[in-house]
Amino acid sequence: MKKPLHPALSKIENIFRPSPLTQLRHPLLEQHHIELWLKRDDLLHPIVSGNKWRKLKYVLDHALSIGSNTLVSMGGAYSNHLHALAYVGRELGLKTIGLIRGEPGPSLTPTLTDLQHWGMELRFVSRTDYRLLRQYRDCQALPDLQAKQYWLPEGGAQVSALQGVAEIVTELDIDYDMLCVPCGTGTTLAGLISAAPPQVSVIGFAALKNAGFLINDVAAILPQQYNNWQINLDYHFGGFASTTVELMTFIEDFERQTAIELDPVYTGKMMFGLFDLIAKQQIKSGQRIIAIHTGGLQGKRGFTC
């Protein structure tokens, strides 16, 4: 029997809306006889949207169950993960500390302003020290962690995060051939792989350059070996949080035709990649595809179209 969530966490989850599954209409899809659906996790909650809640849910349940009173994590100046963590931490009555990549600018970004408003303590660390933080995975692994402090690695990439992501699959009430998701740390991809039917192809679209290491990272976090997944490394557009005119134009056109907003860091790149692969006929005709909208729209404030 499934263990119930901590009561404080259940209270928060009760305000979340179910995320709908929306079929996209587009001439390219009709031309190639592709059925493309978007799992709108961006609509779960106005602040804690997308895969961030999915990944945090059971991690926070564990933190609460062991009596933690402070959440410590890491991210950049527009981090979706820290944005969600700061808000939920406040709602749970927990202290939060964010280790921010790079030196502070002359003013805080809109994201960092939100974090501070929700009570997160901001600590800026050099890019060299930030990279070293990535080696600490376990909730108690961070050096000098104080009593009752709980460590969440970048993006909330812990094994317990897979359980929340896997719940996406249980909400899909149609048959499908392919399941797609953008990749940062690969944790969301791993959760989907662990829950998807074995006959379904699961594809991650890397949001960062030189991301071949994600293949090993995902394999390492999976509970067993699976043979139905891959990571596409071709649609990073220059690197993490990098964009091009081509990408931003695609996002503008997509939003105009579908009335669905995309972020340029994750879901925008995945959707560009999917449409490009369909146009090049690298996805065979007759496929039914479900793509996961992982939210992150607050980070769009760092970009101009």
Q: What percent of the residues sit in helical stretches (DSSP H or I)?
A: 25-40%
Radius of gyration: 19 Å
Strand proportion, as a percent range, falls in 15-25%
CATH fold-level name of the largest domain: Rossmann fold
Major sheet details: 6 strands, mixed
Architecture of the largest domain, CATH level 2? 3-Layer(aba) Sandwich
The first-level CATH class name of the largest domain:
Alpha Beta
Polypeptide structure, described:
The protein is an alpha/beta fold and 305 residues long. The chain folds into two domains: 7-50 and 158-302, 3-Layer(aba) Sandwich (Rossmann fold); 51-156, Rossmann fold. Helices cover 36% and strands 17% of the residues. It has helices at 7-13, 27-31, 51-65, 80-92, 110-117, 127-133, 161-170, 187-195, 213-221, 245-258, 267-279; strands at residues 21-23, 35-40, 70-75, 95-101, 121-125, 149-151, 178-183, 201-206, 229-232, 288-293. The strands form two sheets. A six-stranded mixed sheet has the order 1-2-10-7-8-9, sandwiched between helices. Strand 4, helix 5 (110-117) and strand 5 (121-125) form a beta-alpha-beta unit. Helix 3 packs across helix 7. The radius of gyration is 19 Å and the shape is globular. The model has no long low-confidence stretch (mean pLDDT 93).
